[in-house]
Please model this.
Amino acid sequence: MTLRLKYLACTALTAAALIVPAMAEETVTMKRSELEAIMNRLDRLEKQVAKGAPAAGGSTAELEQRVQDLEISQGAKISALQQKADAVQLSFDNNRPVITTGDGRFELAFRGRFHFDAGTFSQNPGVDVPYAVDSQNVRDLGSGSYFRRAQFGVEGKFFRDFDYEMRFNFGGSEAEDAGSINIMRVAYNPTPEIRVNVGAIQPTFTLDDSTSSNDITFLERAAVVNALIGEFGGSDARKGIEATYLKQGENIDYMFNIAYTTSTIGARNAAADDRDHLLGRIAARVFKNADWDVHLGANAATILSMGGVDGTSAPTAAARNLNFRDRPELRVAGERLVATGNIPAESAWMWGLEAGVRYKNFYASGEYFQWGVDRDRLCTGCNVAAPDPEFSGYYVMASYILTGETKRYETQNRSNSRMQFGAPRPNSPFSSGGTWGAWEIAARYSVLDLNDNVNPTGLAVLGAPIANLGEIRGGKQSITSVALNWYLNRNMRVMFQYQHGEIDRISSTALTNVTNPGNPSASYPNIGQDYETFAVRTQFAF
Model:
């Protein structure tokens, strides 16, 4: 009798400890306090039976019958608890459908993001050079509309310590962007501070890149960020492994991150990219309270090996070339106005600094990057004496939320540790009742300089251009952007953006039939230009 009662009590307490926390949002008929009270009652009854003492108002036989009835009733409640634990529940986290088992060990959440862009360009070319004469003269920017992102996937967890994410992209501005895997990873979380990601991952790298595309303030990340992350192995759908340590404290939060990545997957891997990359980031929220968030960080990356063919190969081999480039911070037009062209490389390096601050509903941030390429000096036709090129770029931005909301500082989301500033959540979502959501104004200035060792004068002798040894005429791009963002609710946003761009680029082609007014013998005309854009994005995400 004693063992049976003790077993019943212990079973009840165990069930409460394991099941009740996982069912916090549901009505549970049996709580821990109730089970503890039952255990105490059973102990008292047990002692009475052992002493042969009758219960108040009844005989010993009646007492034994009451104990048996109690065992039956509480056993039924425990069984009901177990059935509750095994049940599947449907809830909505941030309006996202989530399916969870009753014991909380398994979870499946549906995710989607749909960004539809429309934009128009107004162009002012600096020099009228026909496209047929200069293949780098790619200033024919077209207006139009398209799905910048059309992604759908699932994420969740299993056995508490593991989580997963799978996401497929159905949209994009280029052939390699359409119909491709965006994320496909599994993560192990041995402690609340440590996370290890494996699979097709997007490493936590730079402040701008760590910010979700659902939360970025402008239609595109700064050009310098886009030009770097792909070549240094930080883009979507990179095969690799990532380890993160995140510590949250009362006064400071900090994170260390390191990742090893190799090639892209799917359609993106057409260039046989099997490089080896090593990326790292350290970031900290060094001050925080209700009004302030101050963020500082640094990041670095290196290409350990270019992969593909060995160092005796021709420099035209895709796997041995690096090409830093980007579109003008709007993907409606696919042309790239600045680009280094293929640089045969053995390896490459980069480093960057990041900072951000929020004061109430005001926010400002910026990043600076410098990087370089170790030329491949063994490849066929390479110039052994050519110097190793170096490049740089930066951006600064600020925003103000007119309706009083604040940007959220996120140390992590459901899929990864991030340390970044997220989008505001409207205090009064848009409705026909007269509420209008949240409104934000923002401005950004970005510079991407892809020139190295350039002869700016274009001096020529007998019509033949004189170039500095190993010079790279990638061009310099400066863009000023102004945005007005309307957050209707947590899931919908409309973004209006004006942009003024200035391209300063000297042709690297010998155009002997084109003269420079300042130097008639020169044959390196400036193929730069000014342009303006106006674009709108309609966003729905869950």
